[in-house]
Write a structure and sequence with these properties.
- The structure holds two protein chains of two kinds.
- Chain A has ten helices and seven strands.
- Helix content of chain A is 40%, strand content 9%.
- Chain A has one domain (16-316): 3-Layer(aba) Sandwich (Rossmann fold).
- Chain A is globular.
- By secondary structure, chain A is an alpha/beta fold.
- Chain B is of the alpha/beta class.
- Chain B has two domains: 3-183, Thiamin diphosphate (ThDP)-binding fold, Pyr/PP domains (Rossmann fold, 3-Layer(aba) Sandwich), CATH 3.40.50.970; 197-326, Rossmann fold (3-Layer(aba) Sandwich), CATH 3.40.50.
- Chain B contains 13 helices and 14 strands.
- In chain B, the strands form three sheets. Chain B has a seven-stranded mixed sheet with strand order 3-2-4-5-7-6-12, with helices on both faces.
- The chains are: A alpha/beta, B alpha/beta.
Chain lengths: 337, 327
């Protein structure tokens, strides 16, 4: 089970326990994601927007953050990230089924609009890119109090076209705030390909304009993602300022359950991308390394499916919100007139 | 009791609250060494340091978005927008984000933040330094919108705003900064963020107004006294939520109503006040509700005759009041 120091596959520095945890978190996110698609296609959940193909980078960063101490301003594909930080499959099933006990929003928002105060996961809305400034502001407050928390924030490459992208990187860089900006670049903003989104292939190049490091990482390589996450978070925590990470990832699904990417992407490309899927490749790698034995991954899957079945049952049995509760929580006193 | 300008009263309120509560901070353009383009934050950076009185980049969405993040992480920020005219790039952060945090998280998150901005014309500010676009925010559940008209209220309401757990839009009439003076107590007090004030009692015509127009209306109201008409002047102060009960009480008492504002009338604060009165005071009215405000042109022009044409003056208010009195 031990990993050779001289192994060339890039796992150096990550012990077997970390690698297994990385795989398990990725698998847990993928299984939940698949379940949410199934519920949608069965007509039981009105909407889903997926993180499939993004799991490696999300889990890598999640594992290197301190839940409830660090600040997290995620975007809608960050299912895997929220699970690592401590949210549960049941939490997100309650959200997808719009139940009253959904901890993200009490069934008020569409699914994948993440938020959990206990874990410092800042509530997210649908406008793209606005969350980057919230991360900068949280980091400013931490800096003023002399705390060493880190603010993580993420977006797609489409989000990097918003004005708030510039305003947030600019502000964080001026004050050397501990913000880790992560672009999960899957090459498509709904149907618009990256080359209609920006004139150069790497969002990370823009870091230079702010005098901060820009890092490109293969977002389908969990071990590379883990090292980048560990190093950039440590750098930010030590007071050296923000960093812009760009993970090149695959969008293995359509944009959302209301989209069909076969209208704008070729079948050949979609088939080819499946072969590059971080999850299946990582399993092979870990089995080759001896980190996972032949039965380990299947056993892990069976155990996670069990958790998921139970969570699905509980979420489906949970109550819908009372209609009049729509009037609550506009302002602190509950009266928004 | 000391007499202060409106501007000094705002600054006193901020300074005293910053002394009491180290979470209070200011973020905005030119708020530091310069003390703001109007001087509201003059001296505060020297007293509280560069972090708590922080010059921001020239980026309004950044000012408000960063203030939101700081508020989430335990601060009580004031986001200062240099002119209300320039608040529009921050509207996504104010309307889509701050106003919806509590609701969309089902009460898990809230944004204790104050957005300050000067508004209003009559200072040769032309189209982009004179606007009164507060109605945009009055439409938005999840926000409080307040406009003090006196130094006393300016201090008490900025302190109350800084203690409120939700986002408060605090709009200051820029012509009031130095033109309006009044008694302001030293030390701590607050003025509620959801109560109108009857600033002149009368039983003949109820006038609802806010901001600099309160002073314009008070001037005009005196001109009717020799003719035996006493106006009741209500300073709305809270534009969202409006003080429904105060509006209904004065409208019913007088039976005749004039609503005055500097902004153009369509879909404005005056529209909402008129709607409340139409719904809840119909049988008490002795005349149609009358409104007076700016014309339906994009904004206040620069040339003095054009600017004067736009502005609501005591003469215009007097004319409307006499028309109502004669009805």
């Amino acid at each position: 089970m031990a990993i050779s120091e001289t192994d060339t596959r890039g796992q150096a520095g990550l012990d077997a326990e970390t690698l297994r945890a990385l795989y398990r978190h990725m698998l847990r996110s993928r299984l939940l994601d698949e379940r949410l698609w199934a519920l949608n296609r069965q007509g039981r959940a009105p909407f889903w927007i997926s993180g499939m193909g993004h799991e490696a980078v999300q889990v890598a960063f999640g594992m290197n953050l301190r839940p409830g101490y660090d600040w997290v301003a995620p975007y809608y594909r960050d299912l895997g990230l929220t699970l690592v930080l401590g949210m549960t499959p049941k939490d997100h099933l309650l959200s997808a089924l719009a139940r009253a006990d959904d901890p993200n929003s009490g069934g008020r928002q569409m699914p994948a609009h993440y938020g959990c105060h206990r874990l410092n996961i800042i509530t997210t809305g649908s406008p793209v890119g606005t969350q980057l400034l919230h991360a900068a502001g949280a980091a400013l407050a931490a800096r003023m109090r002399g705390e060493d928390s880190v603010a993580f924030t993420s977006m797609g490459e489409g989000g990097s076209s918003e004005g708030d992208f510039h305003e947030a990187l600019n502000f964080a860089a001026i004050h050397k705030l501990a913000v880790v900006f992560v672009v999960e670049n899957n090459g498509f903003a709904i149907s618009v390909p990256w080359d209609k989104q920006m004139p150069t292939p790497d969002v990370a190049d823009r870091a230079q304009a702010y005098g901060i490091p820009g890092v490109v990482v293969d977002g389908e390589d969990p071990m590379a993602c883990f090292r980048v996450a560990r190093d950039t978070i440590a750098r930010a925590r030590s007071g050296e300022g923000p960093v812009l990470v760009e993970a090149k990832v695959l969008r293995l699904t359509s944009h959302s359950s209301d989209d069909d990417q076969r209208r704008y992407r070729s079948a050949e490309v979609l088939e080819a991308e499946k072969l590059r899927d971080c999850l299946s490749r990582f399993r092979v790698t870990l089995e080759e390394l001896g980190v996972l034995s032949a039965g380990d991954a299947d056993e892990m899957r069976a155990e996670l499916v069990l958790e998921l079945d139970r969570a699905t049952d509980e979420a489906e049995a949970a109550a819908l919100p009372e209609p009049e509760s729509a009037l609550r929580h506009v302002l602190a006193d509950g009266d928004g007139t | 009791m000391p007499t202060k300008t409106y501007l000094e009263a705002i600054r006193d309120g901020i300074r005293e609250e910053m002394q009491r509560d180290e979470r209070v901070m200011i973020l905005g353009e030119d708020v530091g060494a310069k003390g703001g383009v109007f001087g509201v934050t003059d001296g505060l950076q020297k007293e509280f340091g560069e972090w708590r009185v922080l010059d921001s980049p020239l980026a309004e969405s950044c000012i408000v978005g960063v203030a939101i993040g700081a508020a989430l992480n335990g601060m009580r920020p004031i986001a200062e927008i240099q002119f209300q005219d320039f608040i529009l790039p921050a509207v996504d952060q104010i309307v889509s984000e701050a106003a919806k945090f509590r609701y969309r998280s089902n009460n898990d998150w809230n944004v204790p933040m104050v957005v300050r901005a000067p508004f209003g014309g009559g200072v040769h500010g032309a189209l982009y330094h004179s606007q009164s676009i507060e109605a945009i925010f009055c439409h938005i559940p999840g926000l409080r919108v307040v406009v003090p008209s006196t130094p006393y209220d300016a201090k008490g309401m900025i302190v109350a705003a800084l203690r409120d757990p939700d986002p408060v839009m605090y709009f200051e009439h820029k012509r009031a900064y130095r033109a309006v003076k009044g008694e302001v107590p030293d030390g701590e007090y607050t003025v509620p963020l959801d109560r109108a004030a009857v600033v002149r009692e009368g039983a003949d015509i109820a006038v609802f107004t806010y901001g600099m127009m309160v002073h314009t209306v008070l001037n005009a109201a005196e001109r009717l006294v020799p003719d035996g008409f006493e106006c009741e002047v209500v300073d709305l102060r809270a534009l969202r939520p409006l003080d429904h009960d105060a509006i209904v009480a004065s409208a019913r008492k007088c039976g005749k109503v004039l609503i005055v504002q500097e902004a153009n009338l369509a879909v404005s604060v005056s529209s909402e006040v008129a709607a409340i009165i139409a719904q809840d005071c119909f049988e008490h009215l002795d005349a149609p509700v009358m409104r007076l405000g700016g014309p339906e042109i994009p904004a206040m022009p620069f040339s003095p005759p054009l600017e004067q044409f736009y502005l609501v003056t005591p003469d215009k208010v007097e004319t409307s009041l006499r028309e109502l009195a004669a009805y």
